[in-house]
Design a protein that fits this description.
Layout (H helix, E strand, L loop, with lengths): L2 H15 L27 H16 L5 H11 L5 H8 L27 H12 L4 H18 L4 H24 L1
Helix pairs in contact: 2-3, 2-4, 5-6, 5-7, 6-7
C-alpha cells in the first residue's frame, strides 16, 4: 500500500468515527476519564475485543440499532487509540460489563490483612536465638496453621523462620556430632 493510500485510509477511519451516531470525540484532558497522553496510545487486540463485548451487550440490551452495532464493531476491529475506542462507547452507560477505562492509580487500597505475630516471632527466634533452632521451626509451623485459618499475611516470614531454624539445627547437630 502506497503512503498516500495509507493516509487516505486513516482519513476515512477518522471521518467514520466522527459520524453523528458516533459523536463526542475524546480529546486530551476532555473529562472522558482518560488522563493526558493516555488517549493517544494504541490499543491492543484484547482491548478492542473488550470494546466489542461492550457493544454486543449494548446491542443485546437494545441500546444500539443493528446498523449502529455493525458500524461500531467494524471500527473496533481496526487498530485504534484508547481515545478512539472510548468514542465508540462514550454514549453507553459506564456500568456495562467490560467498560473501558484507563488504569487508575487512585483506586482505594484494599483493607490490609494483619501480619501473623507468630510468624514474626519464628523469624526473630531463628535470627536472635540460633541456639534454640527447634523453637523457630515450631513457631513457623504454628504460624502457617494460623495464617491459613485467619487469612493473615506472613507466610514468607514463617517459612524463613523455619528454614533458618532448620539450618541452625543441622549446623548444631553437625558440630556437636563432629566433636
Amino acid at each position: 500500500m502506497a503512503g498516500s493510500e495509507r493516509g487516505f485510509a486513516w482519513l476515512t477511519l477518522v471521518v467514520r468515527i466522527s459520524k453523528p451516531a458516533l459523536e463526542a470525540p475524546v480529546e486530551l484532558g476532555s473529562g472522558q476519564g482518560l488522563p493526558d497522553r493516555y488517549g493517544q496510545m494504541r490499543s491492543s487486540a484484547a482491548e478492542r475485543e473488550q470494546t466489542i463485548d461492550i457493544l454486543k451487550t449494548a446491542f443485546a440490551e437494545g441500546r444500539l440499532t443493528q446498523q449502529e452495532h455493525e458500524d461500531r464493531i467494524g471500527l473496533a476491529l481496526s487498530p485504534l487509540t484508547y481515545a478512539e475506542l472510548a468514542t465508540l462507547t462514550s454514549d453507553l452507560p459506564a456500568g456495562l460489563p467490560g467498560s473501558l477505562g484507563p488504569p487508575s492509580g487512585n483506586l482505594p487500597q484494599p483493607a490490609s490483612r494483619p501480619v501473623n505475630r507468630t510468624a514474626v516471632a519464628s523469624l526473630v527466634c531463628a535470627l536472635v536465638l540460633p541456639a534454640v533452632p527447634l523453637l523457630a521451626v515450631l513457631l513457623g509451623l504454628i504460624a502457617h496453621g494460623q495464617i491459613q485459618q485467619r487469612h493473615e499475611r506472613g507466610a514468607g516470614l514463617a517459612t524463613a523462620g523455619m528454614i533458618i531454624g532448620a539450618i541452625f539445627g543441622l549446623l548444631f547437630i553437625v558440630f556437636v556430632g563432629h566433636n
